[in-house]
Automatic annotation (TrEMBL):
This is Initiator Replication protein. Belongs to the initiator RepB protein family. SUPFAM superfamilies: Winged helix' DNA-binding domain. Residues 19-161 form the Initiator Rep protein WH1 domain. The lineage of its organism: Bacteria, Pseudomonadati, Pseudomonadota, Alphaproteobacteria, Rhodobacterales. One of its GO terms (molecular function) is DNA-directed DNA polymerase activity. GO terms for biological process: DNA replication initiation. It comes from the Bacteria.
Length: 421
């Protein structure tokens, strides 16, 4: 989704490989993904990465997938809706091939996905899989870090900046490209740099610096008197630096790694768990899960055991604490509610933005005399000095007066907002 980096940002996996200094590709995605959908895309790519170009499809235990992303493990409706959103999202790339020839392409983010017998099976188109697997295009990011993010814009900015950590800068992006990366292209509200900076850039930078293993600083470049480009200076955050996991670290030779593979855990996830938690801790949880009766999904249960430290005395085969399980489930429910609330707010913003576009179109149809009369009539209906001052400054795009503006034009043009509400 941008210059030289891959917004398939949602396409970052759980383990990080070394990034490449050469800036070579741009992969953009259309459509607006929620924070949970973005995380889901990351986990799916993590699971499939090693076999992206060799396997036609990939599978993962549905409960494990839901748990890793933060869904209730029984909430298959939300999982189905998110998979549908990924299948409906378009990925587009425009880059130079190995011989310097221009290549343009387009593909759905997932070519198919299905849930059957507790297993999620999915696939990428061959062309997109090849692009995603190219280490020059794509740098893997630890899913442990993505759990810290509470906004889609923060996670999107992190993923778009991370691959440049070794070069120290993203390079200059036009504001048009940056809006696409953040998923706010098409919004007239964010065409204003003032709004873009206050509502998107500043909060996202704070979240990246607080929650991730990199620190970023925005810089702006003007053309004339207006800001036209943005770039981010990047350095590693020593307070939150995560382990680097390579392919020659000997992890695959460990006994605990082989046991994880036997339980259906993917190679990449198995190595991540061992590095994050340590060999002894993972072995302890494996032994604990093995001793539990009626476990439907060993991999999913193991993920929960690692995360919530089930029975930290491995030799005492006590059952999981029901109260702890309840609290964990309540926490995940709250996280899900927060994401749903965020989605609702974003949908409301999009609706309001579309209404402002309609208002602008209606105003453009009026002659100068009608426009003056409309403004005087609207101002006469405002009782608050602040509201009047806001309208005089921002006119029909006044956010403070949005409700009143929409009501005013709905009276003048009863069908103006048909289909938006």
């Amino acid at each position: 989704m941008t210059n030289a980096q891959i917004d398939m940002d949602q396409l970052t996996g759980a383990l990080r490989r070394e990034t490449v200094k050469k800036n070579v590709a741009a992969i953009h995605i259309s459509g607006k993904l929620s924070l949970l959908q973005r995380k889901l895309s990351n986990v799916l790519l993590l699971n499939a990465y090693d076999a992206l170009t060799s396997a036609q499809s990939h599978t993962i235990d549905a409960r494990t997938l839901a748990t890793m992303v933060g869904y209730n493990s029984n909430d298959m409706d939300t999982l189905r809706a998110s998979l549908r959103a990924l299948a409906e999202t378009v990925a587009e790339w425009d880059m130079l091939d190995e011989e310097g020839r221009q290549e343009w392409g387009v593909s759905s983010l997932l070519s198919f996905a299905k849930l059957k017998n507790g297993v999620c099976e999915y696939s990428y188109s061959p062309a997109l899989a090849q692009k995603l697997h190219d280490p020059k295009i794509y740098a893997l990011i630890n899913v442990h870090i993505q759990r810290n993010f509470t906004s889609g814009h923060g996670l999107a900015l992190y993923e778009n900046c991370y691959r440049f950590v070794r070069t120290g800068s993203t390079g200059w992006w036009s504001l048009e490209i940056f809006r696409k990366l953040m998923g706010v292209d098409g919004s007239s509200y964010y065409e204003s740099f003032k709004h873009l900076n206050a509502k998107i850039i500043k909060p996202a930078v704070v979240e990246v610096n607080r929650n991730s293993d990199i620190e970023i600083t925005p810089e702006f470049k003007k053309k004339g008197r207006a800001v036209a480009d943005v770039r981010f200076l990047i350095k590693e955050n020593p307070q939150l630096a995560m382990f680097q996991i390579g392919d020659d670290d000997g992890i695959r030779n460990m006994g605990v790694y082989k046991k994880l593979i036997e339980q259906g855990v993917s190679d990449r996830l198995a190595r991540q768990w061992i590095v994050e938690h340590g060999e002894d801790y993972v072995a302890e949880k494996l032994d604990y899960v093995r001793r539990q009766p009626d476990v439907k999904s060993a991999a999913g249960y193991l993920n929960a055991a690692l995360k919530d430290d089930y029975n930290n005395q491995a030799k005492v085969p006590s059952p999981p604490n029901p109260e702890a399980l309840k609290l964990a489930e309540e926490r995940r429910a709250k996280e899900r509610e927060a994401d749903e609330e965020l989605d609702a707010r974003l949908a409301e913003r999009a609706k309001r933005s579309r209404k402002f576009e309609v208002v602008s179109e209606l105003v453009s149809r009026r002659n100068p005399t009608q426009r003056d009369a409309d403004k005087r009539l609207f101002l006469a209906g405002l009782d608050d000095d602040l509201e009047r001052a806001e309208f005089r400054t921002h006119g029909w795009q006044s956010a403070l007066n949005a409700t009143a503006i929409f009501a005013f034009w709905a009276q003048l043009e009863p069908d103006a907002f048909e289909g938006i509400d």
